[in-house]
């Protein structure tokens, strides 16, 4: 058995659950597969209605889910409530998308036949999700999978098992029996799911994502993996510094930096001392503390190991002759709290400026000019989100064209996504097709080309 504990109150156990073995996972997938054809054959309007009913169920339980998310993954109240509202909106969006055209007709060679391409579901969608967005990420995979006629086998992160159980139970009230299977456990359960499902959608670490994609390729099933980031925010000399600092502080430290879209490198062209001061001041404005408090922006990190990662990165910065601008602000004693850390005078090639720390930790790097800032911004293996702060349209256009990232933002945070727009990165941040928005249909269905000719020459 495994346990999920509260990061703010580690004595509190939220869930105990079995680490399912390969045979259990195969059984769960088989049960979902048996339910899939009936679901696929329903009129799209009925699937749409079921997803709207699921949205109603999640909306009705919003306050319970918010409390559970605060307790289990330490997400501050305001963000957790907003995430659940986003989850409801995602369900409603795909309830509508289920009614979109499901193909196209094309001119036939003989002018009399019907030539069409139509999309149909792939079978059982295997969804492997992280703990940091315990409602939105599962729903932006599960909702399109269901809308387009698939069954789902979902393996949430062990650290978000309690909220996953609650969410799965709410969805089940609106769905046929066994169409949605919840598979609990760790990496082994995830691997077993990759061996059993008909497609895999993964969000999590780069190392695991890559192994999932390799395993999927060996089986010849469709896969998408959304992985890490080392996201830059470039401040150009003409930017509104205070506004940039406010936005970046939130993107770097909100939810203790535990988003793959969080800003972790601030690249300053021009006066880096002024930028450093503005950033320190802006980070200090963010209330750190109990995630249950409505005002909190920076809660705990997920585990003791995550805390150690941030502390090690800070020590490493000092060893590398970086200057720690911020690290010692007070935090609660109990729980996995670590104070926000800002470091400057770091070399862009240092490990702490290259790898994902996944905590409230950001480095400030300096660049002589725009060209160098762009080189530094792109000089990491990841390419998820990037932002640039400027009032100069030409510079904004040059950075927009030059930044190697799947999400590019001008005067806006790297974090935060629009569920109706395609989402994904480049380089080591993503493999496979985009998710969210209309892009999801391409992944959760496969196109068939159909020709229907008259039965006789007449
Ligand atoms: C967001 O920034 O709102 O795991 C979403 C993550 C990303 C999602 C970020 N896949 O942090």
Defining traits:
alpha/beta; six-stranded mixed beta sheet; seven-stranded mixed beta sheet; globular; Aldehyde Dehydrogenase, Chain A, domain 1; 458 residues; Aldehyde Dehydrogenase, Chain A, domain 2; 41% helix; binds 2-aminohexanedioic acid
Helical proportion, percent range: 40-55%
Rg over C-alpha atoms, rounded to the nearest angstrom: 23 Å
Small-molecule components bound: 2-aminohexanedioic acid
Mean pLDDT, rounded to whole units?
Answer: 97
CATH homologous superfamily heading of the largest domain: Aldehyde Dehydrogenase, Chain A, domain 1
Would you count the extended β strands for me?
A: 20
In spatial order, strands of the major sheet run 12-13-14-11-10-16-17
Q: What is the CATH topology classification name of the largest domain?
A: Aldehyde Dehydrogenase, Chain A, domain 1
List the domain count as a whole number: 2
Largest sheet: 7 strands, mixed
Number of helices: 15
DSSP strand content: 15-25%
- Going by CATH, the architecture of the largest domain would be 3-Layer(aba) Sandwich
**How many angstroms separate the termini?**
70 Å
- What would the principal axes of the Cα set say about the shape? globular
What structural class results from the helix and strand content?
alpha/beta
CATH class of the largest domain: Alpha Beta
Low-confidence stretches: none
